[in-house]
Amino acid sequence: MKATLVVGARPNFMKVAPLMREFARRGGTETRLVHTGQHYDENMSKIFFEDLELPEPDIYLGVGSGSHAEQTARVMVEFEKIVLGDRPDLIIVVGDVNSTLACSIVCSKLWIPIAHVEAGLRSFDLALPEEINRMVTDILARFCFTTSPEAEINLKREGVGEERVFFVGNIMIDSLLNYIDKADGSQILERLGLKEKEYMLVTLHRPSNVDDPDELRELFTMLSRLAERMPVVLPIHPRTKKMLESADPPVALSDRLSLIDPVGYLDFIWMMKSAGIVVTDSGGIQEETTVLGIPCVTVRENTERPITIELGTNILAGTDPARVEAAVTRILDRGIGEHSLPPLWDGKTAGRIADILEKHFP
Ligand code: UD1
Ligand code: UDP
Asked: Percentage helix, strand, coil, to 5, in the chain?
């Protein structure tokens, strides 16, 4: 089997690394890794290749930032040249970023089968660009590899035949479980002067939270208030940094709220595991905190990952700062209830995917 795997943005690297490792271990599959360059800062891209022991990409498309149409179109134009040059038997895309969508559209029109890892997640909110990326990719994919039982129901509702759907578990958790012991060697807490369980870890990057200057100001003002109770550390996403730097007048921040640059995978998973509480609008972090058993307050109106609420440690607080503050305060006062691991979030998802693909491409 000749398989091309695509990465583009930060949340893709930890989903592709277990597959690259599994194919290398088994032999028999010729892999080619394409990096679209959607994310390009060293701490949004290169550092993950080191931390996750990913091989250098075979091809780097260097598309960079732009509007949705510009970015998607640039990936399409460059990726088409690559797959026309060396027709793979299969492309493997992960998650829901613009690179996922762009490569899927290209391959579907060239009759190259698509495998979508993390298929079937739905927020039912078309205002989120990721929802469009997910829906289109799933409709086009020959293999929809799902993380949780409700994904199959979502796919069925959209007319995806059951012969295309494979419940394999959560590939992100393969990386988490594989690296959490190694992350124990991280010195990040000492470097930042943080004490285990005595800080709040925050990430925010959804356009709906950070692109509107007033909403951004209100959220950061609320976080500053919370920091008076528990120190806050916030590795700031470049989108959010740009918006915060352009705020006029500047947003007044508590000196107990530390903004730091985005950190690598090993440092970040260690910071999550050691945190008292996590506040985020990230998709992946809702899942990782569930596995680590760390309370997570999600600053969104909806989630495409409801299993993290039903079984895990996630609480959907909405985006109103007062509600987020109340949710965090409640958890700090009373803790969280019972929680358990979603089925097949066991670190063995890459193996299940490779088994299925090897059967189809003997
Ligand atoms: C993208 C994904 C989002 C994912 C997030 C993970 C889409 C539509 N969005 O959002 O689903 O949750 O990545 O982090 O695919 N920038 C830099 N350096 C970089 C990358 C980005 O400075 O290395 C800045 C640029 O100003 C850019 C902005 O961040 O315009 C947004 O980047 P973009 O990739 O368009 O979207 P994200 O918000 O990162
Ligand atoms: N992450 C990281 N460093 C950071 C912030 C996040 O390594 O400073 C990791 C996090 O552990 C998870 C992934 O990046 O594996 C989530 O990416 P992001 O929040 O950017 O995207 P989303 O999941 O929202 O699409």
From this structure: 50, 15, 35
Cβ atoms of 10 and 44 within 8 Å: the answer is yes
Return phi, psi of residue 3, to 5°: -115, 135
Spell out the domains of the chain, with CATH numbers in brackets.
Answer: 2-169+345-360 (3.40.50.2000), 182-334 (3.40.50.2000)
Ligand having the closest approach to the CA of 36: 1
272 closest CA partner among 175, 170, 178, 180? 180
Confidence (pTM): 0.98
Active site residue 35: no
CA of 27 to the centre of ligand 1 (A): 34
Mutational test site, ligand 1, from 93, 239, 261, max ligand atoms within 8 Å of CB: 239
**Residue pLDDT, tens place only, 213-260:** 999 999 999 999 999 999 999 999 999 999 999 999 999 999 999 999
Digit-coded pLDDT (tens) for 110-122: 999 999 999 999 9
Closest CA to 55 of 107, 115, 7: 7
DSSP state, residue 252: P
